[in-house]
Amino acid sequence: MSFKEEIVKVLNNAGDKEIIVVCDFDGTITTADSDVTMNGMAKFFGYESDFAKDRTALYEEYGKYLTEGDDMTRYKMQNKWWSAQMELFKKHNVAPDSYTNAGGKLNFMLRKDACDMLAFCDKNDIPVFIVSSGLGNMIIPLLAFSGNLSGNMRVIANFVRYDEDKPVSYTPVVTPMNKSAHLALELEPFENYHAVVFGNEQSDLGIIPADLCTTVLIEN
Ligand SMILES: [Mg+2]
After folding, report:
1. ∠ CA 173-179-181, rounded to 5°
2. Could you give the number of structural domains in the chain?
3. Could you report the per-residue pLDDT of 142-160, keeping only the tens digit for each?
């Protein structure tokens, strides 16, 4: 079934519930062999750049803790690694137009199926929450230039904040393990909803309690 058909099926059984869509970005809206947004800038600047070298050094420090140990340890280490990555944009004074340039040069292919689904949601006023532990500054232009950004969409991801052209701060980090907490805040105004959740990893699908959603695992 296509992304859109999955939503139509849920809509037909929705009763009085409001349908919302929750969707991962990297590997779900983009194809499996696309670049990923969080690693994108290091690749764009080149792996010999100071930015990329700093990032590699940080990964050597944190990487091994991201998948090992108990939940609380991994949760904390993910927060630290994501914060450290976001600090790099400030440290290296990354210009605000870099993300759009990188988005055009790197390999980002959007799945046609996913774009059809986003258009369908826009047309039918279905709220869409893109929830990603990737880089929001890249996600927004990738959606915008492909004509997929719309008013019913909220992008919850990691954003570098700018004052004029200077990177000064970043939004509270979104990691694989804290995605659900970020989304819960956004969903507070919704009272009687059922979500259709799209993701390319099992961990994407646990973002909302199972009784409140229908999950769709996207493979390749
Ligand atoms: Mg993904």
Report:
1. 95
2. 1
3. 999 999 999 999 999 999 9
Distance from the CA of 164 to the center of ligand 1, in angstroms? 31
Q: How far is the CA of 217 from the centre of ligand 1 (A)?
A: 10
Sign of the CA dihedral with 173 first, then 217, 3, and 138 last:
positive
Boundaries of domain holding 158 = 3-217
Cα-based distances in Å from 70 to 40, 51, 65, 66, 74? 29, 31, 10, 10, 6
Assessment of whether the complete model's pTM goes beyond 0.90: yes
CATH number at residue 186: 3.40.50.1000
CA 218 to centroid of ligand 1, rounded, Å: 9
Dihedral (CA of 41, 43, 44, 48) sign = positive
- Find the 118 Cα to ligand 1 centroid distance in Å: 17
